[in-house]
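Researcher: I've been going back and forth with a colleague about how Glutathione S-transferase might be arranged in three dimensions. Neither of us has a model we trust, so I'd like an independent prediction. The organism is Circinella minor, in case that matters for your notes. Sequence below.
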Amino acid sequence: MALNNLKIVYFNIGTIGRAESIRLLLEDAGIEYQYESIERTEWIPFKEKLISEGHPAGCLPYIVLDDKMYFGSTPILRFLCKKLGQYKGSNDDEEQFVDACADFADDFWNSYLKLLWNPTDVALKEDYEKNDGIKHLSRMERFYGTNEGPYVLGTEISYADFMVYHALDDQKRTQNLKNYPNLAKFIETFSVRPNIAKYLTIAPPKIE
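Model: Here is an independent structure prediction for Glutathione S-transferase. You can compare it with whatever you and your colleague have in mind.
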């Protein structure tokens, strides 16, 4: 299904943050889109405007498709999967497994937020690496071993894979997975998908 006049609205922070998984999915699917960047200094009045116009979430990212707005990074991914008829599994069991992996990938990314907000806190980073980091990496490693990879469903890519890649990439872990062979296999395969490989050469830098 063609998705026309699609726009992503998010902060001007490069590939870091909650919108990147959406962008990765669209790039992989070959869907054209616009990307509207909001400066962080503009956010408070922009948020107030969204709410005053009747948009209940009042948050970023959101997408605009055919003049309608859709909010929530993971719900947007699931919405796009339905529109495209792909990236969500081929039956109810696969769809549930993908949804579970996606939710845990979101937990992984959220757990890392404290380091993004406190990048110079050495003690916090050490604690994360010894505790939450290992917990989430080990969980994702088990997910990717369930169907023998390279993707979480096996040979078929899903929207959860874009989220897991992004969680690892934001944490600068894509080249340091020697203790997690299933994740390393996934990253190696994901990174050479034709549209993804092309996008990664031109993707904007992360702005932390």
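Researcher: What would you highlight for our discussion?
Model: I'd start with this: DSSP finds nine helices and four strands in the chain. After that, consider the following. The longest helix spans residues 92-117.
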